[in-house]
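Archive maintenance. Older records in this collection stored only the sequence; we are now back-filling the structure field for every entry so that each record is complete. The fields below show one back-filled record exactly as it appears after the update. Entries are processed alphabetically, and Metallo-beta-lactamase domain-containing protein is next in the queue.

ARCHIVE ENTRY
Title: Metallo-beta-lactamase domain-containing protein
Organism field: Gossypium raimondii
Length field: 329
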Amino acid sequence: MENQKPLQNGNNVAGDDRRRVGDGSALIFLGTGCSSAVPNAMCLIQPSDPPCHVCSQSLSIPPEHNPNYRCNTSLLIDYCSTNGMHNYIIIDVGKTFKEQVLRWFTFHKIPRIDSIVLTHEHADAVLGLDDIRVVQPHSPTNDIDPTAIYLTQYAMDSVAAKFPYLVQKKLREGQEVRRVAQLDWRIIEEDYDKPFVASGLKFVPLPVMHGEDYICLGFLFGEKSKVAYISDVSRFPSNTEYVISKSGSGQLDLLIVDCLYKKGSHNVHLCLPQTLDALKRICPKRALLIGMTHDFDQHKDNKVLMEWSEREGIHVQLARDGLKVPIDL
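Back-filled structure field:
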């Protein structure tokens, strides 16, 4: 990734045309916040004295100009294959999905979704599934090609209970047709030895602990540049860490990883001290942090992280909603 174009964000990137000759692959951060997103609603309805600096900004700065405004974590992969065709793969569709579409699909000129990959079945990863229909062709009879969606059997069982109308195969007798998202459910394994291909891009599942009672998936993808996306993790099993570490299967070009709070620890997420410790063990060339609460101020904390980066030799920064990272996959 040393020869990649510099990182770009939603305020200074010209909208890219997917048909433009030479326009390559890119990662677009649709959301970089925690499950409750930022601003934290409690900070606004019951403000502290003095008010929370990060959350109070949301009342004075438009979200598209506010790097501390964070929707649920979600990544869009704009994958340009060797034939120059673009496919659009999204990882997770949480509670803020429609807002992300309106803000960042329009800005970055994303015309559709070709595939969906789910890390797990918690609300901040799946509650936007109903809104997938807003990015599908309109058909009052649901007569459209379904969007492929990749998930574990455990997640499938949970999603089927939450959204039975999205998984039923045919209407019951007398049941009226209602327009809903059309999805092609495809089961994957929680096993890094069992990769799958979504819209031409190979993904290696990376099982991690999201609390000691729950397995969540991260994903490794990219051949020319190796990228790992791990949004919800409290501990890396040794086998998973080996797959993504410099001292194991090979150095990552980019690690995108969970970081909930600035201080202390949490039972189901990494916080900054644990995240930085993990970075020193895994040793990627570059890291971008996601899943942040209102603890983090983009401007101040990225300066601190830059100083850490210079000491440790690993470039790390907070990601932000709308950030676009051109990358050769």
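Update note: Residues 26-167+179-322 form a domain with the Metallo-beta-lactamase; Chain A fold (CATH 3.60.15.10). The longest strand covers residues 201-209.
Entry marked complete.
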